[in-house]
């Protein structure tokens, strides 16, 4: 493959990735399979795709197209070359608002498309649960559906035409054609292809009528039913929809749009038993909802254990139901929606479910008329797959029969019979998804690391698909065929239609260049050599820094929690994953890093992969924001995993000078602060910044924090105080006014304030050492601080600090690093605003704050967001009279400690800031406060917008002075 890689590098503008680490990252999707490609191409323009296909044909290497890599059946992994369309080929080429049409590139993400359509009152209504990362090309290749398909149908109904590249390199337009003219016309190869497909449809019309499932959902095989005579025209594009990239590669897709659903009402129907929910569906659909979605008791239980979902679930779930049905109405008239919601209550009562009637069963409807509440509920439902996969054991709910669709009257018996199948195979299953169309995503819980689990996989699949065939349903109702279901087509459709599928593939791609062995001529679905856990799968034991005991397999088990569903690929909302948002590289993504770690920990990337330069390149742009820990439903904690890599590298190779300077800052700061003119010389002497970049790798484009001579020093404080004030290194030596302001605010309350007492230099959280992998030093610093503050905490007091990354270290890392510290103790080390919010809520004295301005834009430090402590900031600032607080919807600011100062990461740091934070700050009015608790955040805002950002302590202190409250010395 070396020659092919070299030729590609010379002939295309895009990226050519044939190294082992890149190939490993693209060897998996969200399925159970793993197939290492020969290489990866990330095209910059479609001509790169053409050139890649030509060279691949010349070298007899197949091609597989890929969008978000979220396929659950193994469609987007294969041998040969994988082409990633998502990074560059993701634009809107045309938008016709009047006629509700758009022409888009295949790599465009659905949510990104809908964000651009929203101002025009339009959306693309195939609303898949993976909308934050699913691409239109992938959805087309998969014939995707969505929660509202009972109203809007499937992808095939919304694709008007496709500009595509055929296997022989021919560009072709697939769209509506006149049937009679096409059958007569044979002037070009493309016309002859169309003629043959229409002739095949006519020939197989009777067999299709007899065997084709008539369920709401069916995506198995090729859509040859669209080639059957049915009026004067046929849409040839429909043949490409659902073809999984086996017939052509899309260049652009013309799609049909719909008006947005601006008015909605949602009812959450509760059922004491699963079967009763299934029996109710056929009655509920008579009310003409746009969606009826199932949530089972397993999903409810697991969601309650995930921080980002817990509060929402507790608001819309009453009691302990076995099943919920989310029923949505979305008519233009909201009064009509509310009437239908009332009718839903009546229907449920008629079916025997009403809480307030002792004669009825324990069930009923919870109303959700508020759009914001509806959005939170739907977010829980759309994250159903990830929630189900949050089980920490090796046995997971697996996708292989999750696409079965049957007619609604058959749904109760069908689900009951499947439960019997699971019981006979010694397992149970989780259920969720599209009850309205008779398709439930059922996932049996199996361990594919064991032969018994693989055997059960085959046994359950065969029995389940037999039952589906008996009910004249479809075993492939939404997620496609890939490896997992292609071999079962003959069971459902018969040998004649399977031979017709083979004929289609042969006619389009006689040499098998495009994604071979999918849909036709598939491998066995239980071939372990194709699985993520092959027979020889085993992890290499290694010592770890953190305690990973919450996972049965330790660090390796924590890494394996990544299910590849790609929630980290979202481009807006929340904070995850900032480096991916800046670069759009699979490498710079939580999923990409987790895959790399898993392959390294199992020896699949070589014996020294874990400490290799390639691994460091993988981790280089991880800013340790911890957003993945909170926002990934699997809670993949990449920040700690990066520390494991850094520690292993430090042990093997030592720590470089720049990293050591950053790490040792708390040790030399007391001495350097005595000569601030010398410490600041790097930014005052001509040429010094340039020299620091050449010698240390500190970007000359970035000014370093300014040392102060008037450092913060603690007065002698009584150790029996209620609260200890912990001054971190940054606010002590660089911004001491913040510490002084915080002390003034705390003294204006009714607490007894003290300060930790220690011999020698000030206390430290150890954070800077963690960032360099110097974990022994980090532990020593944490231990020293823990010993100083433990007596106050054990006495029921609290410790208050200012810098989120420092304070929250005691809540996150410390309990897994030092033995005499636990999470309960860590919870009492609090940010200033956390403590004040708690203190005020418990009846403590609120200082007499005065008005200081009208608006404050609030940017949250990543660790504040990850620890879910942004609420207290807003509650405390609400105590300032007349001040309106507006949170900035932003990801990481991009500075991230030393990250923004490094020459090699400076550009990406700037890109992260420009994603949303810096534009929002520049757009703010001149008299608005910019509030940011993080030292790094304030520096990024200052450098990138030339606006001063201040700590919340400064805002409170100004309000304190405006209120005329005098400080009093109760230390």
UniProtKB/TrEMBL annotation:
Q: Which GO terms describe its biological process?
A: lactate catabolic process
Q: Could you state a single Gene Ontology molecular function term?
A: metal ion binding
Q: Which InterPro entries match?
A: 4Fe4S_Fe-S-bd, 4Fe4S_Fe_S_CS, Cys_rich_dom, FAD-bd_oxidored_4_C, FAD-bd_PCMH, FAD-bd_PCMH-like_sf, FAD-bd_PCMH_sub2, FAD-linked_Oxase-like_C
Q: Report the superkingdom from the record.
A: Bacteria
Question: Which coenzyme or cofactor does it need?
Answer: FAD
Q: Which controlled-vocabulary keywords does the entry list?
A: FAD, Flavoprotein, Iron, Iron-sulfur, Metal-binding, Oxidoreductase
Which Gene3D superfamilies does the UniProt record give? 3.30.465.10, 3.30.70.2740
* UniProt keyword Heme, yes or no: no
Q: Where is the FAD-binding PCMH-type domain?
A: 33-260
Database matches in SUPFAM superfamilies:
alpha-helical ferredoxin, FAD-binding/transporter-associated domain-like, FAD-linked oxidases, C-terminal domain
Spell out the Pfam families in the cross-references: CCG, FAD-oxidase_C, FAD_binding_4, Fer4_8
**Identification of the protein by name:** FAD/FMN-containing dehydrogenase
- Give the species: Dichotomicrobium thermohalophilum
């Amino acid at each position: 493959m070396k020659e092919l890689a070299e030729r590609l590098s010379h002939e295309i503008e895009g990226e050519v990735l044939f190294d082992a680490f890149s190939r490993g990252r693209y060897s998996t999707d969200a399925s159970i399979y793993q197939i290492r490609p020969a290489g990866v191409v990330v095209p910059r323009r479609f001509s790169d795709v053409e050139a890649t296909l030509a060279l691949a044909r010349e070298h007899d290497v197949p091609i597989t197209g890929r969008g978000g890599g979220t396929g659950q059946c193994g469609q987007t992994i294969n041998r040969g070359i994988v082409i990633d369309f998502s990074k560059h080929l993701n634009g809107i080429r045309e938008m016709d608002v009047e006629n509700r049409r758009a022409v888009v590139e295949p790599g465009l993400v659905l949510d990104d498309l809908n964000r651009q359509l929203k101002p025009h009152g339009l959306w693309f209504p195939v609303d898949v649960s993976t909308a934050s990362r699913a691409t239109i090309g992938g959805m087309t290749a998969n014939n995707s559906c969505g929660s509202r398909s009972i109203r809007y149908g499937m992808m095939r109904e919304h694709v008007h035409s496709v500009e595509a590249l055929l296997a022989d390199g021919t560009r072709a337009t697939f769209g509506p054609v006149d049937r009679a003219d096409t059958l007569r016309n044979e002037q070009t190869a493309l016309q002859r292809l169309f003629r043959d497909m229409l002739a095949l449809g006519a020939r197989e019309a009777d067999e299709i009528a007899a065997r084709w499932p008539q369920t709401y959902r069916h995506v198995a095989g090729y859509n040859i039913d669209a080639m059957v005579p049915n009026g004067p025209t046929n849409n040839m594009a429909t043949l490409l929809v659902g073809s999984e990239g086996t017939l052509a590669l899309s260049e652009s897709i013309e799609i049909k749009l719909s008006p947005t659903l601006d008015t909605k009402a949602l009812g959450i129907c509760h059922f004491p038993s699963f079967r009763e929910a299934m029996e109710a569906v056929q009655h509920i659909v008579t009310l003409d909802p746009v969606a009826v979605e199932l949530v089972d008791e397993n999903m409810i239980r697991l969601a309650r254990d995930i921080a980002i979902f817990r509060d929402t679930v507790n608001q819309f779930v009453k009691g302990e139901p076995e099943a919920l049905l989310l029923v949505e109405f979305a008519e233009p008239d909201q009064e009509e929606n509310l009437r239908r919601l009332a009718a839903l209550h009546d229907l449920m009562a008629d079916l025997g479910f009403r809480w307030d009637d002792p004669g009825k069963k324990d069930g009923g409807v919870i109303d959700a008329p508020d759009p914001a509440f509806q959005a939170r509920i739907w977010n829980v439902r759309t994250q159903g797959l990830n929630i189900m996969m949050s089980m920490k054991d090796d046995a997971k709910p697996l996708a292989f029969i999750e696409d079965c669709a049957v007619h609604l009257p058959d749904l109760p018996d069908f689900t009951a019979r499947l439960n019997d199948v699971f019981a006979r195979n010694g397992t149970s299953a989780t259920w969720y998804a599209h009850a309205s169309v008779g398709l439930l995503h059922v996932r049996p819980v199996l361990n594919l690391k064991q032969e018994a689990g693989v055997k059960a996989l085959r046994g359950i699949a065969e029995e389940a698909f037999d039952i589906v065939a008996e009910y004249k349903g479809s075993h492939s109702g939404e997620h496609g065929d890939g490896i997992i279901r292609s071999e079962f087509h003959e069971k459902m459709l018969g040998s004649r239609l399977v031979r017709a599928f083979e004929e289609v593939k042969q006619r389009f791609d006689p040499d098998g260049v495009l994604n071979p062995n999918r849909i036709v001529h598939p491998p066995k679905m239980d071939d372990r050599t194709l699985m993520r856990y092959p027979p020889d799968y085993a992890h290499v034991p290694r010592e770890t820094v953190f305690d990973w005991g919450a996972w049965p397999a330790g660090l390796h088990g924590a890494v394996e929690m990544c299910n590849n569903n790609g929630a980290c690929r979202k481009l807006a909302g929340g904070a995850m994953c900032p480096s991916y948002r800046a670069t759009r590289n699979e490498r710079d993504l939580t999923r990409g890093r987790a895959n790399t770690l898993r392959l390294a920990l199992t020896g699949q990337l070589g014996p020294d992969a874990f400490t290799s330069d390639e691994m460091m390149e993988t981790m280089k742009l991880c800013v340790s924001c911890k957003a993945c820990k909170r926002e990934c439903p699997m809670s993949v904690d990449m920040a700690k995993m990066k520390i494991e890599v850094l520690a292993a590298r430090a042990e093997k190779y030592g720590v470089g000078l720049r990293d050591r300077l950053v790490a040792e800052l708390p040790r030399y700061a007391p001495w350097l602060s005595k000569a601030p003119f010398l410490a600041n010389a790097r930014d005052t002497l001509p040429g010094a910044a340039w020299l620091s970049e050449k010698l240390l790798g500190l970007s000359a484009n970035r000014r370093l924090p300014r040392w102060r001579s008037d450092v913060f020093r603690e007065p002698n404080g009584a150790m029996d105080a209620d609260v200890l004030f912990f001054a971190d290194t940054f606010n002590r030596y660089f911004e001491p006014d913040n510490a002084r302001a915080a002390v003034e605010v705390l003294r204006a309350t009714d607490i007894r304030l003290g300060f930790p007492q220690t011999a020698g230099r000030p206390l430290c959280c150890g954070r800077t050492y963690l960032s360099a992998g110097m974990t022994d030093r980090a532990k020593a610093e944490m231990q020293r601080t823990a010993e100083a503050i433990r007596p106050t905490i054990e006495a029921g007091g609290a410790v208050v600090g200012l810098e989120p990354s420092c304070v929250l270290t005691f809540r996150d890392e410390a309990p897994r690093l030092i033995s005499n510290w636990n999470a309960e103790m860590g919870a009492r080390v609090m940010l200033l605003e956390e403590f004040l919010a708690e203190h005020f809520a418990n009846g403590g004295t609120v200082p007499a704050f005065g008005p200081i301005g009208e608006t404050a834009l609030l940017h949250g430090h990543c660790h504040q967001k990850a620890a879910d402590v942004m609420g207290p900031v807003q509650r405390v600032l609400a105590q300032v009279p007349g001040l309106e607080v507006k949170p900035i919807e932003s990801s990481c600011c991009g500075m991230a400690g030393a990250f923004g100062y490094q020459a090699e990461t400076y550009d990406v740091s700037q890109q992260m800031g420009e994603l949303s934070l810096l534009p929002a700050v520049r757009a703010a009015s001149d008299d608005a406060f910019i509030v940011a608790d993080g030292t790094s955040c304030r520096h990024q805002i200052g450098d990138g917008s030339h606006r001063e950002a201040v700590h919340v302590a400064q805002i409170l202190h100004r309000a304190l002075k405006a209120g005329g409250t005098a400080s009093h010395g109760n230390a």
